[in-house]
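Reminder to self: tokens first, then the designed residues, so the page reads top to bottom the way the pipeline ran.
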């Protein structure tokens, strides 16, 4: 694995707490020209209760992070705006430090950039707590909410793959 370089950390990106899926969508959209490959990782489990260590909040029904292979490094980098260990981390280190509890059995849907941009739609109807506010940017799409499809582990979405922690490390930890 190549030398890990933090190249996106100094830049500012749109962010709204509790809107991880939109934060990552916007980040990947803004950095597309700076990376070789980019993905969104939709993380959940069958019970919708994953534990994420070293995080602003430890328990989530789901979480979404970015995974990129940039032009300056040959390994993958995880982008997580809610991590207490920094928003840009080397792939294996991130997975091992944030998903310690094997019992929560996190599942990772890997969504390539082009599929995310084409198929990801949210009308924000899944955000049930209105007091959280909304992001400063407009909704990504005003049409029907396809966001929940990405979290449905039984739903096949062409071009995406679902992995458990061990499988994910084997597939992308090179």
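Designed residues (174 positions):
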């Amino acid at each position: 694995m190549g030398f890990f370089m933090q190249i996106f950390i100094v830049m500012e990106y749109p962010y709204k707490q509790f809107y991880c899926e939109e934060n990552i969508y916007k980040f990947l959209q803004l950095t597309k020209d700076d990376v070789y490959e980019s993905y969104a990782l939709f993380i959940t489990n069958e019970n919708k209760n994953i534990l994420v260590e070293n995080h602003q909040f430890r328990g989530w029904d789901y979480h979404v992070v970015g995974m990129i292979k940039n032009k300056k490094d040959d390994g993958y980098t995880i982008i997580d705006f809610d991590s207490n260990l920094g928003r840009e981390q080397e792939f294996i280190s991130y997975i091992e430090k944030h998903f310690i509890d094997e019992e929560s059995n996190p599942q990772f849907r890997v969504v390539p950039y082009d599929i995310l941009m084409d198929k990801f739609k949210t009308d924000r109807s899944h955000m049930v707590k209105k007091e959280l506010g909304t992001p400063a940017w407009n909704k990504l799409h005003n049409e029907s909410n396809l966001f929940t499809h990405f979290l449905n582990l039984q739903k096949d979405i062409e071009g995406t793959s679902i992995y458990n922690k061990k499988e994910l490390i084997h597939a992308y930890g090179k």
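The longest strand covers residues 35-44.
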